[in-house]
Amino acid sequence: MDNYILEIHKTLLKSQGLSNPQDRIKLINSAVALADKHNDVLWGFETRMFLINAENYTPSSRYSFPAFAWILDQHERNIGLFEEKEFLLEYKWLLGTAYGLTSISLDQIHRIANDFKEKLLANGYSLRGLYHLEALGLQQFRDFEKAKEVIALIKASPLDELSDNPPFEQTLEVFNYLGTGDIDAALIAAQELFLDRYEGLNTAFETYTIFAMEFYRIKDSRQFEYFELAQRKLPVFDSNDCITNIRSRVLYMYLLHQYEDEVCWDYFEKICIWAHESDDYYSFFFLKYASCMLKNGGKRKFSFPVYLPYYREGMYDLGELFVYFKARALEYALAFDKRNNNGNFVRELDNLLALSK
User: Fold this and answer.
1) 347 and 249 fall within a common domain
2) Out of the domains of life, which is the source (predicted)?
3) What is the DSSP letter of 314?
4) What is the CB neighbour count within 10 angstroms for residue 300?
5) Burial level of 84, CB count in 10 A (0-12/13-18/19+)?
6) Is 120 exposed, middle or buried (0-12, 13-18, 19+ CB in 10 A)?
7) pLDDT for 58-67, tens place per residue?
8) How far is the C-alpha of 151 from the C-alpha of 148, rounded, in Å?
């Protein structure tokens, strides 16, 4: 075995022992660079697959898209060196991620989806995995009636290794019922998620938090019961997940603030760091809820890293942070609405600010 291949092996093995996803990504990137330095396409493929899967545990796809573009290019240039089946799961994840990036147009998303569809059929897969992503995109467009039709297609399609994901499908259905205002149906659809029945995946905290937020939004007294249930599930969730499910942590942070729990600011400080390099949708999601926490002003001390654009020494003026966070949230909302050809994100930002204490 050549020395550089041995070094790549050691680097990848070492990366798997790191608990912080960002540390893993940094180390894997060095393995990618080593493979490229020696023009080793096969190890360039292997290291990039490691990179994409490592970044899947963060709210960012910063390295994954260029890595996957390289994989597609090399697949066409080196027929037979690696098979399409080897990277279709990563393709599915990145297609889903594309909906959360304002730099990717709807036309580009449709072209990517069509290419993914062709590859699914060519390799003997059903379209169930593609329907997952179509429903996800329609929910982002807030077209819940059309998403309902696609969810029916999901249920009617055969299962395969790219689509055998019950918790994802159940979450899709829960969100769709909530989007149409049918909370009773959403609660029924969420039963398996509440029970944490899936090995290696903690669904209860996120699900209880989502319902607590929905009950808060409609001023239903069940908000307190579901928030308490979420709190009970938090230790298990924290022990198994570092950054991935940033959305549920943002909602939990927001509800802590609405219930006047000072712990909310600990979450705020951490998520500011996580959200800094997140994909557009996650950044927007955080900024809109964080803006609500800042809108009443005041002074507070934070230990932010110097690379954050709003870093300063000493106390922070929450009113000044509010101006910055709201402006950034509005910037994202306008970009998504322009891309999606609707006004949903701006309207939801305004409604949330009006709802919050």
Assistant:
1) yes
2) Bacteria
3) S
4) 14
5) middle
6) buried
7) 889 999 999 9
8) 5
Q: Which residue has the tokens 């360039």?
A: 44
Q: How many CB atoms lie within 10 A of CB 5?
A: 15
> Total domain count for the chain?
4
- The answer to the question of residue 184 being in a domain is no
Secondary structure (3-state) at 30: helix
What would the pLDDT profile of 165-192 be if each residue is shown by its tens digit? Answer: 999 999 999 999 999 999 999 999 999 9
Write out the two tokens for 206.
């996120």
73 and 90 share one domain: no
> What is the rounded distance in angstroms from the CA atom of residue 337 to the CA atom of residue 342?
5
Distance of alpha carbon 317 from alpha carbon 303, whole angstroms: 14
Contacts 24+ apart (CB under 8 A), 296-299: 296/357, 297/322
Structural domain of 14:
1-82
CA distance 25 to 17: 12
Q: Report phi then psi at 299, rounded to 5.
A: -125, 145
- Could you say which of 205, 221, 241 is where a domain stops? 241
Q: What is the Cα–Cα distance from 5 to 203, expressed in whole angstroms?
A: 39
**Number of neighbouring beta carbons within 10 Å of residue 13:** 9
